[in-house]
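Write out a record, focusing on structure:
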Amino acid sequence: MSRYIGPKIRIIRRLGELPGLTKKTSARKYGPGQHGPSKLTKKITLSDYSLRLQEKQKLRYNYGISETQLYKYFKEAQRLKGLTGTLILQLLEMRLENIVYRLGFASTIASARQFVTHSHVNVNGKSVNIPSFQCKPNDLISIKTRLNSRVLAKKNLDNSVNSILPTHLELDKENLTGKVKGLIKREEVNLIVNELLIVEFYSRK
């Protein structure tokens, strides 16, 4: 399944808040579908499979990746030492597009992806236009010196709602640079998700 480009409000009504997908909110407190508010009066019991699928979909939509990409991250996390669920989140958080988003240079991960692909970003002084580029501790993320890049980054930074910067990142607003100090802590991932259910989902494949 390819990257989702459909209605975003519909997704957050189904899965809950996804800060990386959109900053929009919905006044409707029930899921999408033709039956509307009547769903509020019914107690919906999800199967074990549905619960695991829902948690997996949260990662896919929030980080804007395909099913194939997410499965590759799962296999990579299995290969590494540590908790597989936490490692999946750390791998996703270390994608360049997500680092740009968390630094405040873009309002969502989708806009950060566009920001990166349009060659506005340098990593350690070299131009990188691959959103999935895996950043490492001590990497220096900087905005290119050309005017349109810096104006766009400054505008997004001034309007950023990411007021609390995770401790694994360091931001220099004046010079529009950021540094990756290490791996993100599990409690600083700004997505409500049960990663253990995701591991169980893929472990049954």
About this structure: The longest strand covers residues 140-143. The chain has eight helices and five strands. The mean pLDDT is 86. The two ends are 17 Å apart (CA to CA).
